[in-house]
Amino acid sequence: SGGSSSPAPSHHPGAEPPPHRRGEKGQRGDATLRSCRAVAMSVSHSSRLNKLVREQYMRLPQGGLVQVTYVWIDGSGEGVRCKSRTLDKEPKSIEDVPEWNFDGSSTAQAEGSNSDMFLVPVCMFRDPFCLDPNKLVLCEVLKYNRKPAETNLRHTCKKVMDLVKDSHPWFGMEQEYTLLGVNGHPYGWPDNGFPGPQGPYYCGVGADKVYGRDIVESHYKACLYAGVKICGTNAEVMPSQVGPCEGIEMGDHLWMARFILHRVCEDFGVVATLDPKPMTGNWNGAGCHTNYSTEEMRKEGGLKHIEAAIEKLSKRHDYHICVYDPRGGRDNSRRLTGHHETSNIFEFSAGVANRGASIRIPRQVGQDGFGYFEDRRPAANCDPYAVTEAIMRTTVLNETGVETKEYAEH
């Protein structure tokens, strides 16, 4: 955009004729112009900066030094924060990355009078934004007394995963998300109204069916570059599937995939929301369906172990609902209504190829007699550490009721 000018006076030869004289073609042009303006208003100002200027700085040599971006979960339990520091050489393992600290009073994790929090590196990835040899590092957050912060759910998850490691649990989590403009309106939707009803958008192709494919594909490539175990994506409410991952790795990789998603969206000037029901009405919500198996489920005859696990889950439905979103089930109550390919939040159900059930056994698994099952209850904004820990507590450690057991360090 290059500034503005006043409209030409009506008597000027170059003046735009009034609408009643311009005819249908002129009116179509008006509609196109309004659409372009709406799109421009829905993206952030920073996304419209000249990226070529940025590139000339990004290509500058680093003189053997390395940028390391520390990433952590903030006090909301949903948001991620980051900051960067310089290391003298490229870290080859997570042990080469030093601990750091930050002001927890600015992230809703501490009071100002005692605000220093520790960042403890736990998992390292290549940096798809600054490129090699720079790194992204996921961190646990510890309080001043070295105890885990309230939203550090990785700490207990790691304990549980160490206890059950001989069962070799595999997870694949389908992270659904919705793209919004910075105005909070779904990206690509008309300003005053709704698009056509659901149907043509699932795995859709075409400008009138898919909005923001550039973002989805950029995120996919960035995850692959970083080393995130992402196994696919498709247009729906924009899901990406992370996994299969074993044990604690599931939470680590999904959180980093979320960070990369938000950074990619920042570059494009839009917002990715993980709200389980961003739009009320006859629209699907957004979940984080969790595919799960143990080694014995994946072997011949594993279906009986799948059925046994589902039976255990059926007796602990309330506990799982409480940990499957950050607000103890309140977020999921807007999504799990029994409609739009969801189960009812108050009832447990299971079935083969049934996307309206709490637990779905894929048809192929039912035919083969072994494999995995899908827990369709977790919300899009769930903490994957909480979800995977809960599943292991119920299906492998045989916990019952709504209380959890404390386990010593393994």
> Which CATH first-tier class of the largest domain would you pick?
Alpha Beta
Poorly predicted runs: 1-22
The amount of helix comes to 25-40%
Mean pLDDT, to the nearest integer, reads 86
User: What is the overall shape?
Assistant: globular
How many discrete domains? 2
* Secondary structure category: alpha+beta
Question: How many DSSP E strands?
Answer: 14
CATH topology of the largest domain: Creatine Kinase, Chain A, domain 2
Number of helices, where a helix is a run of at least 4 consecutive DSSP H or I residues: 10
What is the CATH architecture assignment of the largest domain?
Answer: 2-Layer Sandwich
In spatial order, strands of the major sheet run 8-9-6-11-14-13-12
Percent of residues in beta strands: 15-25%
Largest sheet report: 7 strands, mixed
Termini, distance in Å? 61 Å
CATH superfamily of the largest domain: Glutamine synthetase/guanido kinase, catalytic domain
Order of helices and strands: HHEEEEEHEEHEEHEEHHHEEHEH
The Rg value, from CA coordinates, equals 24 Å
